[in-house]
Amino acid sequence: MKRILVGALLVPVLCYAQNKYGLDAIRLKEYQASLASHPEKELVDLQKELPGAEFRIGYATTENFTKTKIYNLAKAYARKPVAEALKRAQADFVKMGYSIKIYDAYRPYSATVKFYETYHDTTYVASPYKGSRHNRGCALDMTIVDMKTKKELPMPTEWDSFSTDAWPKADIKDPVKRKNRDLLISVMEKNGFRVYEHEWWHFDFVGWRKFEVMDIDFEELK
Ligand SMILES: [Zn+2]
Predict the structure, then answer these.
(1) What's the average model confidence in pLDDT over 117-129?
(2) How far, in Å, is the centroid of ligand 1 from the Cα of 138?
(3) 0.70 cut: is pTM over it?
(4) How far is the CA of 105 from the centre of ligand 1 (A)?
(5) How far is the CA of 58 from the centre of ligand 1 (A)?
């Protein structure tokens, strides 16, 4: 009896959560329809597109700022042109003996709402009124690893840190960390991305405006 009641109550609450910020995030059917006229809008699986890259999807674990598991599946999707640009960046890194490691890519809009409601500071979490570029399949949280050891290169902070040392312009004393951060940013920016001013690991694809905010779970994309 209790379960039925909870279930009945949950449905309207969830619908409300997706619309209360007035943003029209597209769902699976609208996304599928958009592909007919815009095949470049396809979300592709980065684990297939970037076979040499590493993946540690932080929101599929409890090791993230919310300390809870946000995703049921550890998946990394991005729009096709984003994946193509990322492949070019990967080729540049490989020439230097490094490889990309992805922490997060496409993120359903419902997760952005959850982040905002956990942590209201929009310096570090996207505003649900606008959505995140992750919601558009146009942003990546990432670092670089040594190709042989797969170990992450030392960076100014951990991924998902809310410290000012995470800012790409932070004056980092450690020359190795500073050099690694600057290398990551320069290669990504050369390949069509822009670093976010408060997070050295977050990169927006320059053409993000053409892609809608989506609220489609990984399970629906499989
Ligand atoms: Zn990000």
Answers:
(1) 86
(2) 10
(3) yes
(4) 8
(5) 11
CA-to-CA dists, residue 120 to 88, 137, 149, 167, angstroms: 35, 23, 38, 19
Give yes or no for a contact between 46 and 84, defined as CB atoms under 8 angstroms apart.
Answer: no
Q: What is residue 3's predicted lDDT score, i.e. its pLDDT?
A: 44
Domain count, the chain: 1
In order, the DSSP letters of 30-64 are: HHHHHHHH-GGG-EEEHHHH-TT-EE--GGGSS-S
Which residues lie closer than 8 Å to 185 by C-beta, 6 or more apart? Answer: 168, 195, 200
Kindly provide the b/e burial profile for residues 102-132, where b requires at least 16 CB atoms within 10 angstroms of the residue's own CB. bbbbbbbbbbbbbbbeeeeeeebbbebeebb
The residue range of the domain holding 29 is 2-221
The Cα 147–Cα 206 span in angstroms is 27
Determine the distance separating the centroid of ligand 1 and the alpha carbon of 66, expressed in angstroms: 14
